[in-house]
Amino acid sequence: MVMTINQRLRQRLGSLRASPGGWLIAALSLVLIIQCARLVFVLITPATPVGAWQPRQPVDMPADAKADLFARVDPFYRSVAPTEAGSTTVTSLQLQLFGVRIDGGGGSAIIAGGDGIQKSIGVGEDIQPGVRLRSVHFDHVAIDNGGKIELLYLDQGQATASAPASADSPAGTPTTAIPAPQAGAPLSAAALRSGLALSPRTIGNRVTGISVAQQGDGTTFAAAGLRAGDVIRAVNGRPITSAADISAISAQLAPGARLSLDVERGAGTVPIAITIPNGNP
């Protein structure tokens, strides 16, 4: 006797009803079938997008964008912040910057005047009559000195107590320490002329700066904030371009003079301000 499919299903259901764990076995079998189907789907489905994968190609900058970038940024020479574009003058005022704070309100700075008293100045406030704090940056501030934008750096005016040993010195050769400058000791024009040795630095038959070396005991050299190996790149914002600039600098060393120097030191540039008080020939 041949059983139909309907009869077989009824017979199977009847046996499941008769068995106490029949429905549990049926449920577990269904779960097992579903999990097997999911496993097969995971194995046959590619993990990456369909097709040949290609890495993303780098996007090169246009030529004009490159030219504009390298015109604004020089990794070997401290550049001016964009907000002070056109101003490369380090202030010659007797001010010293001790700290900066940048926040959403514009920031503030701790600045001391000629009296040495430190004050917290906010952006837009007067540092002294006619001099206003314009903006604050990570290593310097910009000040408005009677309508002229000037820069004041954190390391401006800091002098070193001793000169580093020269790389050309033979091993075992003792080095002479430069005496530490006395706080508040004024510089004189005569001391600067006798204590500084100036010579042109040339690269490819072109004068690119003035090399500075100490003469005498080095007291004036250290008091001016200079170190062995320093090269003056600009004076009062004017770049050094010829050996005749040495005579021009010497002529400016006079009572009442204020010189703002851009000094190349190692791979960076340090701004130094030299002020010769009146009455110090």
Automatic annotation (TrEMBL):
InterPro entries reported in the protein's UniProt record: PDZ, PDZ_6, PDZ_sf, T2SS_GspC_N
Domain named PDZ: residues: 195-267
GO biological process terms held by the UniProt record: protein transport
Span list, region Disordered: 162-182
Spans through the membrane: 21-44
Localization per record: Cell inner membrane
Main location: membrane
Gene Ontology, cellular component aspect: plasma membrane
Keyword Zinc annotated: no
Keywords from the named record: Cell inner membrane, Cell membrane, Membrane, Protein transport, Transmembrane, Transmembrane helix, Transport
Record-linked Pfam families: PDZ_6, T2SSC
Domain of life: Bacteria
Protein's name according to its UniProt entry: PDZ domain-containing protein
